[in-house]
Amino acid sequence: MPRRIKIYAAPLAGVVEIVAPVFADERGFFTEAYNRERWAEAGFHEQFVQDNLSLSAKGVLRGMHYQLHPWGMGKLMRVLTGAAFDVLVDLRSGSPTYGKWMGRHLEAADPRWLFAPPGFAHGFLALEDDTRMYYKCTSFYRPEAERALRYNDPELGIEWPVSVTSLSEKDAAAPLFCDAETNFHYSDGA
Q1: Which amino acids are annotated catalytic?
Q2: Is 22 left (phi over 0), alpha (psi -120 to 50) or beta?
Q3: Model-level pTM greater than 0.85?
Q4: Which contiguous run of DSSP H or E holds residue 65?
């Protein structure tokens, strides 16, 4: 593992993967989960105002959620226990990756974080029981600005690795990508 924070560009414009050093020995391991000063030295300067934690059983899908501009929510995500398939969809018109999706397998044993700036729909599918997803947010939750995309929209073609066995009624009724209300523009700085 690196001894310094490492930041890697992901396939979607503006999305990054961040790996923090892990110090392991016969007792287990230690890592600084987040240190604003060290992350800034590595080039990551986002400010967070809200932290969220969810617990899901295998097969639970949460998403695909986003908030409209100007309340768009950047998210820094990591799995604390279990494993999840984490998915992002670029909603920013004018982006070179507009309408594209990416998925990452995140698990507790991997110190990797995934960051998406505002303008992305986010969702995840729990791959194991007792999956705890932790995420730091750049904006406060605003119910009036919350929107969602249909997780199984054929136009997006997201390839979920296991069957979805549970999702909320709201997520099941979310609109397709072509009908979704979005107001993000790549030039908004996202």
Answers
A1: 65, 135
A2: beta
A3: yes
A4: strand 61-67
